[in-house]
């Protein structure tokens, strides 16, 4: 039975993040021949709706307002509900990001909907769809099915197959005029001051080079950064490295940091505490570099190198340079 599935686009700095295409691909599968809609909220984001029909989107809702420049649950709820009333979805997809983790429950409560958080896969077909999500720090998986009513799902980035261009749909763009009065907004975010970060976004990176306490100090991240730059990778860190002051907490990967699922994860000087494994054990290929042959990280690694990272990482960088130079 075909359905109507609505996707909340994940927007950062006036750009659609890759997880949006992953959600559109999932929405197409869930809709099973039905309609797929996308909601784009923000400021100066009208152009983002162009061409989404070619990815299989039937209708794109755009709410362009200064009040939506930064995430505000009250403003998002009012704007998103306008699209929900018009589209009447049976399922809603959001990214399992800082926004989705907060806004998903907000909308579930508002709509009286069932919610499934942090899914990494979808199994089954038609009305027998099951959403797969990790539990116990990734040691086990549950398969959840919502039997009736609206379903709200948050999707972990880098796990589902993204929609591809070439569908050929024209797609409809609807600009929604939403007014935000003071009683609607309990709080207002006027400005967000971010630390400068020109590197690859950790949560969407295909390759991550990560360091732990084994880097010894802040300068120990330099060879890791050199390797990451060569591979077009993001640099991450364990909580131990962050707590020691070797790097900023924005790089932290783990149970209390970011959860990542890259194609390649290179762990340098990371012992492999369960809290760190919870954030990266779903990576497709894991390479561990550690002087301790008994380090727990080797239990989840696909490839293990027992050695000093300050010797091994420069050797890897040199070899990668040679391989890339031959291409």
UniProtKB/TrEMBL annotation:
Pfam families: ETF (PF01012), ETF_alpha (PF00766). Keywords: Electron transport, FAD, Flavoprotein, Transport. CDD domains: ETF_alpha. The keyword Transport applies. GO terms for molecular function: electron transfer activity; flavin adenine dinucleotide binding. Gene3D superfamilies: HUPs, TPP-binding domain. FAD binds at residues 213, 238-239, 252-256, 269-276, 290. It comes from the Bacteria. Binds 1 FAD per dimer. One of its GO terms (biological process) is fatty acid beta-oxidation using acyl-CoA dehydrogenase. Its cofactor is FAD. InterPro entries: DHS-like_NAD/FAD-binding_dom (IPR029035), ETF_a/b_N (IPR014730), ETF_a/FixB (IPR001308), ETF_alpha_N (IPR033947), ETF_asu_C (IPR014731), ETF_asu_C_CS (IPR018206), Rossmann-like_a/b/a_fold (IPR014729). Residues 5-195 form the Electron transfer flavoprotein alpha/beta-subunit N-terminal domain. SUPFAM superfamilies: Adenine nucleotide alpha hydrolases-like, DHS-like NAD/FAD-binding domain. Belongs to the ETF alpha-subunit/FixB family. This is Electron transfer flavoprotein subunit alpha. It comes from Alicyclobacillus ferrooxydans.
């Amino acid at each position: 039975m075909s359905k109507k599935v609505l996707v909340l686009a994940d927007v950062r700095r006036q750009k659609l993040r890759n997880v949006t295409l992953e959600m559109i691909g999932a929405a197409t599968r869930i809709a099973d021949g039905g309609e797929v809609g996308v909601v784009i909220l923000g400021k100066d984001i009208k152009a983002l709706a162009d061409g989404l029909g070619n990815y299989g989107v039937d209708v794109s809702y755009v709410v362009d307002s200064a009040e939506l420049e930064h995430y505000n649950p009250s403003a998002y709820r009012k704007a998103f509900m306008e699209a929900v009333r018009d589209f009447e979805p049976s399922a809603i997809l959001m990214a399992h990001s800082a926004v989705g983790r907060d806004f998903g429950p907000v909308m579930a409560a508002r709509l009286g909907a069932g919610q499934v958080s942090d899914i990494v896969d979808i199994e089954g077909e038609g009305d027998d769809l099951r959403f797969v999500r990790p539990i116990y720090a990734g040691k086990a998986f549950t398969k959840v099915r919502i039997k009736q009513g609206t379903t709200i799902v948050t999707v972990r980035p880098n796990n589902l197959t993204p929609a591809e261009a070439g569908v050929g749909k024209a797609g409809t763009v609807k600009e929604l005029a939403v007014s935000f009065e003071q009683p609607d907004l309990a709080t207002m975010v006027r400005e967000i001051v971010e630390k400068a970060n020109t590197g690859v976004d950790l949560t969407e990176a295909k390759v991550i080079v990560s360091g732990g306490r084994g880097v010894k100090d802040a300068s120990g991240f330099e060879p890791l950064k050199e390797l990451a730059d060569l591979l077009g990778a993001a640099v991450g860190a364990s909580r131990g490295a962050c707590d020691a002051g070797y790097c900023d907490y924005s790089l932290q990967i783990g149970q209390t940091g970011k959860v990542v699922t890259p194609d390649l994860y290179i762990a340098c000087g990371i012992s492999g505490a369960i809290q760190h494994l919870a954030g990266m054990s779903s990576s497709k290929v894991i390479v561990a570099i550690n002087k301790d042959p008994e380090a727990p990280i080797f239990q989840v690694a696909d490839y293990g190198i027992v050695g000093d990272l300050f010797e091994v990482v420069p050797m890897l960088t040199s070899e990668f340079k040679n391989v890339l130079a031959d291409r």
